[in-house]
Amino acid sequence: MKLDELHIKIAKDFPIDNSDLGNEATKTTSLWVTYIKLWSDETLRLEKLQSGRNTLISTKREYYSGNASAAVYQANPFNGKTPKSDRGIQILIENDLDVIQYDEGLIVQKNKVQVLEAALDECKRRGYGIKTAADVMRFMNGG
């Protein structure tokens, strides 16, 4: 699920319909089940991406240090000088387009997990919102 789609889904799922508070109260459990599954799936995807980043960094370190196989350099020639220091290799890795793009995807994935965690927190608070709405309705109706 894309981040924009997730925002739209949350905006659709979480508003409380004051005209049907009983249904809204029972809806909270199904919302929690839906969002815990999404959170679980997206957290797993994040962990896989983080693991994949480690592999990518290792591959790039071999490449920039001159330790990759000849086939790698034949397929993707390195036209620069091999740095003499670990810091020089690290700078090349940090500025590598593949690493930058991978990190951008990782940032988006982390954001999705954070949004889903916020949605789950809202599930916890949703009952208070429903209770408050019911109390207000009782007060407005003289009860």
- The count of helical stretches stands at 5
* Spans of at least 5 consecutive residues with low confidence: none
Mean pLDDT: 94
Determine Rg (CA atoms, Å). Answer: 25 Å
Count all strands and give the number: 0
Q: Which percent bin holds the helix content?
A: over 70%
Elements, N to C (H/E):
HHHHH
Structural class: mainly alpha
Q: Any overview of this molecule?
A:
- The protein is mostly helical.
- The protein has helices at 3-13, 21-65, 70-75, 86-94, 97-140.
- It is rod-shaped, with a radius of gyration of 25 Å.
- The two termini are 45 Å apart.
Topology:
Elements (H helix, E strand, L loop, with lengths): L2 H11 L7 H45 L4 H6 L10 H9 L2 H44 L3
Helix pairs in contact: 1-5, 2-4, 2-5
Key structural traits:
143 residues; mainly alpha; 5 helices; 80% helix
Sum this structure up briefly:
With 143 residues, the protein is mostly helical. It is built from 5 helices and no strands.
